[in-house]
Amino acid sequence: MTSGNSDQQVFVKVVGFTEVERHALNTVFRLAGQRDPAYSLWLDSTPEAPKLALMDGESHHASAELATLHDGSLKLIWVGAQAPVNADCIFQRPLSWSEVLRAMDELVEPHDSVDFDLDFDSQGDTRPPEPEQPGKRALIASADRNERLYLRAKLALAKLTHVDEAESGAQALELARSRQYAVALVDFALPDVSGWALLRELRQARPRIEHVIVTKENASAGERVRAWWAGAEGCFDKPPHPGKLHQLLQKL
Questions:
Q1: Fewer CB in 10 Å around end: N or C, the chain?
Q2: Segment 117-145, tens digit of pLDDT
């Protein structure tokens, strides 16, 4: 494969991953299709062999698929523990898809890797992302691990990669009172506190949280208005609509 080929198409064999992670990965592939090298999901019907394999070590399919990888030219990116000795790159969850993409670039073109800004509105700009500004840290409060992964991916797309997670209202308040956050994403279904009470506490927390966004199952129009009056800048169903959430994060 020649470095610098403007028409370079790289097929990636993907094994495992949650539905939320697959959604984020599909977004990565869609945006990566606008630049060089371009990545596409490899299927059994794809006439060309894959160049990369991206494997979820927690998937029961991973071991079986690993046994079929005899071609040393196929680079392997492994996610999770107990990585095989032939893994070229290893990542742990929660994933930063921008870092995964950089690793893919390095494996495909080790002497000419390209930084890529994972932005829904990207028009192929391959300049390195701007350094994160001091204090641009985000807080995710949700008892649902998959929801936290989903929201972390959306924050990364909005260039918010410094993220803390809380699984309860008590943890969220402890973090909010000890760190400065630009934005907090709060699920109303936390087990130890009323969502409305937590929203009120977070809006009163010091240091001040600049922006608070909430998620609530089947939120009514009245509840959305109530959340807005209580200081939330957005009230989304679960899971939040990716485009609308991204637009709000970009505005913030």
A1: N
A2: 333 333 333 344 444 444 589 999 999 98
